[in-house]
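Quick look at the format.
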Amino acid sequence: MPKLAVLYDAGQAVLSTFDLDEVLQRILAIARDFFHLPNVAILLLDKEAQQLCVRSQIGWDAGKDKICLGYHDGITGAAVLKKQPVYAPDVTKDPRYICAAQSTRSELAIPLMVCDEVVGVLDCQSDRVDRFDDETIELLTLFSTHASIALQNAYLYSLERQRARQLEAINTIAQQSTAVMDLEDLLARVCSVIQLAFQVSHVSLLLREEGDLVLRAHQGTLTPCIPPGGRFPVSQEPWVRVIASSGTIIEKDLTTTPEPERLFKESASRMSIPLISFGQTLGVLTLHSSQPNTFRESELQSLESVADICANSIQNAHYVERVKQLAYLDGLTGIFNRRFFELRIMEEIERARRYGTGMAVIMADIDQFKRLNDEFGHLLGDEVLRQVSSLFHQQLRKIDVVCRYGGEEFAILLTQTNAQQAIAIAEKLRRSVESYQFPGVPRTVTISAGVAAFPAHGKSRDEMIRAADNGLYAAKQAGRNRVCLASLARAATGGR
């Protein structure tokens, strides 16, 4: 009776808190102090991974205290399979034994059960052979029922708290998405809210642009493998599966995946959720963990609700962005205007300065355009401007920016480009215009171009534009229909 009284008191102590970690520590402390056990652990059952994972322990050898065992491996697995205590009085004679402490000589594994379902195992080990008699096994089995109930209560309490945080996050995202119409600000806020609410290592947002996914925002504690604006082909795994299936992909172990594909250096598992609005896949929301096997199917409902809100918010922000862009478009050619160029060049210079990726500017001008207008009329001159704009678009990458700088002059921003590459691109543009037969124009139309690269030819907007403009002037002075690098024109003076 005294033992039962102590056991009752122990059970009450275990049931007096809802904090899971505190419950685990109390169970272990009672097993150690009341039953005088040097080695005791609680392994929780992960049904999805079909593993028993050590959640808390006392006395296990270093390196063994975080292991996960197979669903039915070892003496603990036997307890799960049989749904009853399994005792090995001498572990050296039991082939099922898996060593957790070198001092162990006997082991008792008691399943922790709720509603006839195993939720974990209380694993008791002793440094003495045949340490556990029938009475001790009976008392520990009774104690395990209290421990099982305490664990279940703590789990349900933890689940409710988690759901409350997630609902609060969903509400916060919904509220902010209606108030924030700037796309960059919206993406940054969404990443921050999700990372805190769902308690993951990192959150990132990749948006679809033509044939690529572009990393537009991220928030968390992991180290990026690529800079903001990094691009991935939509055809690359796992993005092709996410977009093709319009379904969530959980990658349980990324430890052997090359770093750039992981996005973040320490990312060991990932959940990728498509962002779908009105049947259109806008991008992918990714959650990262520094530990393998972190994400569960049970978390999908809340996260997919968040993804739906994000997708609609991003779509709304896109609409607002398109309206803003109308102010930056040239009415004649449909390409960006000088105002947009002067905004973007500042961004590209800052990106090149921060990440050392390089950038270049091409200033291009249609040769003798005034004469063309005088000979063939302004309507045909306008059509030549449109055709030249179209040729530039066809020859350049999607990430490059073509602007009508004024009159017959064009300004082109080339990202992640050095001087030699920029010269080659300008030459390609020059040849494409020279070889093109413009409808209604019986003679060849040509362009001249000047090239300037950051930081060799300038470190500010004005310096870069002036350098490229000097290159353009040199090309005109040298006879037109040619490309000149800014450095070749530093001594040049005068106008075109």
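Next, a different chain entirely:
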Amino acid sequence: MNKSYFYLKLETHHLHMSYKNEERRVRVLLPKNYDIDEAESYPVVYMHDGQNVFYSSESYSGNSWKVIPAIKQNPDLPRMIVVGIDHGGQERINEYTPWKITESPLPEEFELGGRGAEFAEFVMTVVKPFIDQHYRTKSDKYHTAMIGSSLGGNISAFMGIEYKDQIGGLGIFSLANWITSKAFDSYIARKELDPEQRVYIQVGTQEGDETDRKLMYGNMKQAYIDGSLKYYNQLLTGSVPIESIRLNIFADEEHNEKAWAKHLPECLRFLSEKWS
């Protein structure tokens, strides 16, 4: 087998977030033979929680999304550029939540959430233009996808609506929408959705962890399942056709990268079906 097949180049950039006056690491995984096939341009998949995307040694849980093996072991997938955008550490919950968290057992003086719109704007007005300028991308919405898990799924679902003219595919893993469900529900109800968008949704029956327990009342496992089913129905109500949505509920799967990595190839396959 051609050795270059196993050689995928990962490039690192630090992009300026003006609203926080700090740099954010963004890494770009290039498809095989990117340097050789100079006439080719490629679809782009943006992934949140960049620290967990490429290498297990960096990942919070000790497991990564295993994007590189997913691409190598599934040669039927079209060639694509994958961009991992790091989360903000302690700021992660604020950046990935467009609304203030008000429906939780936290004491009222705890202010959490509400910076999601600013973070989304950074991705769409700084990161995406930088990638499109520096790499040979297919920059239209049909060849642009956004993938995230848990709170990263929340911000992806929000961005899929807010930037529907620029994002054509969404991978929503273990959506944690219970955290601001009232705000999200009223937001999606008053927005026009894009019937041409493709949305992959997955949730396990054993979701939820100790961190969640501090933020929510009631049955966590059920909250994750209910949230994904509700989002699925909201998309249908908003006239996204059923064949453009893939919903998977996996028995016994938990809330971690191991579960998400397992199904990433299926997600990429589904999102790329209409890529030329």
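The radius of gyration is 18 Å.

See the schema section for token definitions.
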